[in-house]
Every structure is written in structure tokens, then in C-alpha cells.
Specification:
72 residues, 3 helices, mainly alpha
């Protein structure tokens, strides 16, 4: 859900779908692979999200500054 907050709706919707399908198919065994893939992705996001959040904050700050300094 952390990607929704930063506007990365497509990838977070995919993560959510991967979790739901993985959880629902744990019985047949397929779900373990899907949940494992999701866990690796979330682990990678642990290291990637601070940079993504920082870039998002810088972009928002730049837009606000441009609007504040715009004439008229």
C-alpha cells in the first residue's frame, strides 16, 4: 500500500493482486511462489522507497515553488 501513497497506483495494484491471488492459492501450492515473489519485491522496496519518496517530495516542492513565484 506504500506505493499508492506516492501515486504509483499500477504497481501497487499489481502487488495487491499478487498478494490476494497468492493468499487464495496457498492450498494448491501455487500461492507460495506468488507470495515469495511479493516478499522479494517488498524487501527491495524497503531500500528503494526512501529514494522514491525523496524524489516525490522534491518534485512537489518544485511545483509549489514555481506556483508561488509565478507572476500574477
Amino acid at each position: 500500500m506504500h506505493r499508492f501513497y506516492l501515486g504509483r497506483i499500477g504497481s501497487d495494484a499489481f502487488q495487491l493482486g499478487l498478494f490476494l491471488v497468492g493468499f487464495l492459492t496457498l492450498g494448491p501450492g501455487v500461492g507460495f511462489l506468488l507470495v515469495g515473489i511479493l516478499l522479494v519485491w517488498v524487501l527491495a522496496d524497503t531500500f528503494l522507497m526512501p529514494g522514491i519518496a525523496r524524489r516525490d517530495a522534491e518534485l512537489r516542492r518544485a511545483v509549489l515553488m514555481a506556483e508561488a513565484l509565478a507572476p500574477g
